TrEMBL record:
Gene Ontology terms for molecular function: symporter activity
Organism: Salix viminalis
Annotated protein name in UniProt: Amino acid transporter transmembrane domain-containing protein
A cellular component term, taken from the record's GO annotations: endomembrane system
Main location: membrane
């Protein structure tokens, strides 16, 4: 067994082992101790990044955090599927509490354990950002979990888009059989599935185009942060707060109205700065960008 030397910036100890067949197997181990540099303030200005880069990265990180909490847009959809008893508002309060607590716990664990393992050089994407691909089964299992999660999440988040486009075309072309006619298809062990030609073509094209664009422009952190910054304030904060003010009939310039307004304006400022930071990150990454080769 031979140990491959690691430099001062490396955070993985690669071990190369020859098996009975003479083939090389590589395994990797997260290194702790002297090679991992951590600090209370994170990356060191002048060593790891410049002062300007650190500011941009901090606001870009806020956008990434905001993306994890942009769930308000589907709360109404979920509530519509609930039974009237027990009361929907009580069920949604419990569901929101459990969901937010679970999300916060998992992301905090990911952030703290990731920083403890990789220090100031911790990558934005633990699965692809640091060259640690062994044990292969663990990385494959993590990617499988992400795929299962995204299959469901993709459907939930794109349904409003699908419905908007399909309803618009039905209103514009009510006489078109291609758009309005349903074709029954018998599927064993399932029954009859109603297939619409336009729906099949449109949704397939949407998935293909969005997937190709994601492969062409794989700017993971910047794009994620930009989406989070753009959607967090209006969908998670502004509209819910305004609906609450209207429903509770809170008068202007009262204590509650004042603090809700301060919260709304503060988050708007942070969202705008985060969006600007993510745009700056996209511009920076484009300088080294190569289609289908660049990994962020």
């Amino acid at each position: 067994m031979a140990t491959v030397p690691v430099n001062e910036q490396s955070f993985a100890l690669d071990i190369v082992k020859t098996d009975d067949d003479g083939r090389l197997n590589r395994s990797a181990e997260i290194a702790g101790g002297k090679d991992v540099k951590t600090s209370l303030t994170g990356t060191v200005v002048g060593v790891d990044v410049t002062g300007t880069e650190k500011i941009w990265n901090c606001f870009q990180a806020i956008g990434n955090i905001a993306f994890a909490y942009t769930y308000s847009s589907i709360l109404v959809e979920i509530q519509d599927t609930l039974k009237s008893s027990p009361p929907e508002n009580k069920v949604m309060k419990k569901a929101s509490l459990v969901g937010v607590a679970t999300t916060t716990t998992l992301y905090m664990m990911c952030g703290t354990l990731g920083y403890a393992a990789f220090g100031n050089k911790a990558p934005g994407n633990f699965l692809t950002g640091f060259g640690f691909y062994e044990p292969y089964w663990l990385i494959d299992f993590a990617n499988l979990c992400i795929a299962i999660h995204l299959v469901g999440a993709y459907q939930v988040y794109t349904q409003p888009i699908f419905k908007l486009v399909e309803d618009s075309f039905r209103k514009k072309f009510p006489e078109s059989g291609f758009i309005t006619k349903e074709h029954p298809v018998h599927i064993p062990l399932y029954g009859v599935l109603q297939v619409n030609s336009f729906r099949l073509l449109w949704r397939t094209a949407y998935v293909i185009i969005s997937s190709v664009l994601a492969m062409i422009f794989p700017f993971f952190n910047s794009v994620l942060g930009l989406i989070g910054a753009m959607s967090f304030w209006p969908l998670t904060l502004y509209f819910p707060v305004q609906m609450y003010i209207s429903q509770a009939k809170i008068s202007r310039f009262t204590f509650t109205w004042t603090w809700l307004t301060i919260l709304t304006v503060s988050c708007l400022i942070v969202s705008l700065i985060s969006a600007a930071a993510c745009v700056q990150g996209l511009i920076t990454e484009l300088h080294a960008f190569k289609p289908f080769k660049f990994v962020s």
